[in-house]
Each structure stands twice: as C-alpha cells, then as structure tokens.
Amino acid sequence: MIGLSHYLIVSALLFSIGLMGVLRRRNLLMLFFATEVMLNAVNVAFAAISHFYNDLTGQMFAFFIIAIAASEVAVGLGILIVLYKKHGSLDLDDLASMKG
Amino acid sequence: MYETIAFYLFSALTIGLFLITVMSKNVLYAMTSLAAGMVLISGFFFILGADFLGVVQLIVYVGAVMALYSFAMMFFDATKDIKEKNTNPALIFVLGGLSALALVLMFAAPIYNKSIQALYPMHKGVGNAQDVGIVLFTKYLVPFEVAAVMLLVAMIAGIILAGKKMDQSLTKDTSVDDDEILTQKDAK
C-alpha cells in the first residue's frame, strides 16, 4: 500500500534533481526549467500531505505556488529576452560583468 | 492495486523525464520532457484525490507556462546545442543531493509530529472542486486577491520587458539589409 512516505520520497527525489540542475546549469533558460522541476516537486508533497491528513490547506498552498510560478515565468522570460537583446547570449559565464 | 501500479509508473516516468530536463544539452528536448513530466505530475494529483489541483496543473503549467516557454524559445536560437562549462560533475551531484536531503529533512520533520490536526478538513460526499472553492473564497480570500494583483503586475512587467523594440529582429543584424544578406548567401 502506498503511504505518505512514498510520496514524500518521490517528492524529495524530484526536488534533488531540480536542485542538481540549478547547481549544474550555466544557461539561464535551463536554470528556469530546473526551478520549475523544484516547484513541481514541492506541489506533489503538498498534495500528498493534504490527502493523508484529510486537510485542504496543502492544496491551497499548491494553488498559490502555481500562481507564483506563472508570474515568475512571465517576468523571468521578459528579463531573459532583454538580456539576450543586450548580450546576445544566455550563458552565465558570458553575462558575468564583475570579474573578481 | 491500481493505485500502486499507477504510483510507481508515474514516479519512475517523472524522475526519468525530469532527469532528461536537467541533463539534456538541447533546449527543445529539455522543454518537451519538462512538459511531459508536468502532465504526469498532474496524474499524481488525480491519484491523491486533488482533482481541481490536477486540472489547474494541466491548464496553467502544461498549457500556459509551456506555451510561454515555447514562445520565448523563438527569440533564442534553440536548435543548436548549448555549450556549458561544467566544473566537476561528481562534486555537484554530491553537493546537490546532500543539500536537497537536508532541506527535505528540515521541512518534513514537523509532518511526523503526532499532534498535527486538520485545519480545514475535507467533507464526505462533497466534490473536491466545491470543497476547494468554499475554503478558497472564505478562508483564503485575501491571499487569492493578492495573487490576482500579483498576476496582473507580472503580466504588465512581461509586456513592458519583452515588448520594447519588438520591431527589430533579434537574430538578424539590423545594420545589414535583406538584399545584402541574400547576395552574401549567393556569393557563398
């Protein structure tokens, strides 16, 4: 039988995949994808806790996370387009303007 | 029984697809596998009885966010592979895994507390959408309105950021005329 810990383990695995992507990626668009992976992993955990504790609060938080993710994508992609117009590249190493 | 099969199938597929998203060199492959993984994540929500959340996940994530990404990809050169300078992948695997584990333990520890109790319990015989609607429009009305204002602000920001100099092409050099580009191609 599938319990709460099964869902939490899957969610933790997905979250660590996303975090690995954030650490590993140098391209800004790919960094956005990794962020989406992390947000989805957290949503799975919220829905599982909401189901197993018979409580709607988890689902409410998942809704607000989805709203925040949507607005983050809208603003973030606008910034990416401006950056691409200015530098012609989305690589973080090319964008570094303060060399230490 | 079916729930078990569905759970293991969905978890294996989502982990595989998100691994492709994180590891792939091609933006198009990464985006497609991310969209497929999000569809399967909504499958998790349907198993868990959160029907409305699953539908919202399908509409907002797979519909709106992925369409936004694919529109944005038209501004960038998406067909060529991304060259990234990676510093010691083994170190990043270990660091990422360890820090994710620490974060998950920190945030999952209160869940195993026995004194936890339902704040807004679900009702028997009432559909998930009705239940969500009642709680959302009574207990969470102010955050709901704030989220609406936030989405409006994000929309305006997106239009203003991306809409500037829309008449100029990003990939084409504007100092050279179209005819000159054509003659250059002919010369080659």
In this structure, how is the largest beta sheet of chain A organized? Answer: none
Q: In CATH, what is the homologous superfamily of the domain at 1-78 in chain B? A: NADH-ubiquinone/plastoquinone oxidoreductase chain 6, subunit NuoJ
The sequence of SSEs of chain A as H and E is HHHH
Uncertain regions spanning at least 5 consecutive residues of chain B: none
Largest sheet of chain B, described in full? none
Give the mean pLDDT of chain B.
81
User: Which structural class is indicated by helix and strand composition of chain B?
Assistant: mainly alpha
Rounded to the nearest angstrom, the distance between the terminal CA atoms of chain A is 55 Å
Radius of gyration of chain A: 17 Å
Features:
heterodimer, A: 100 residues, mainly alpha, Helix Hairpins, 4 helices, elongated, B: 188 residues, Four Helix Bundle (Hemerythrin (Met), subunit A), 7 helices, 69% helix, 0% strand
Task: Describe the protein's topology.
The complex is a heterodimer of chains A (100) and B (188).
Chain A lengths: L3 H21 L3 H25 L4 H31 L4 H4 L5
Helix pairs in contact in A: 1-2, 2-3
Chain B lengths: L1 H22 L3 H21 L3 H23 L15 H20 L19 H11 L2 H23 L14 H10 L1
Helix pairs in contact in B: 1-2, 2-3
Overview of this protein structure:
The complex is a heterodimer of chains A (100) and B (188). Chain A has 100 residues and is mainly α. Chain A has a single domain (4-91), classed as Orthogonal Bundle (Helix Hairpins). Chain A contains 4 helices and no strands. In chain A, helix 1 (4-24) runs antiparallel to helix 2 (28-52) and helix 2 (28-52) runs antiparallel to helix 3. The mean pLDDT of chain A is 87. With 188 residues, chain B is mainly α. Among the domains of chain B are: 1-78, NADH-ubiquinone/plastoquinone oxidoreductase chain 6, subunit NuoJ (Four Helix Bundle (Hemerythrin (Met), subunit A), Up-down Bundle); 140-188. Chain B has 7 helices and no strands. Chain B has helices at 2-23, 27-47, 51-73, 89-108, 128-138, 141-163, 178-187. In chain B, helix 2 (27-47) runs antiparallel to helix 3. Chain B is globular and about 55 Å long. Chain B starts with a helix and ends with a helix. At the A-B interface, helix 1, helix 2 and helix 3 of A face helix 1, helix 2, helix 3, helix 4 and helix 5 of B.
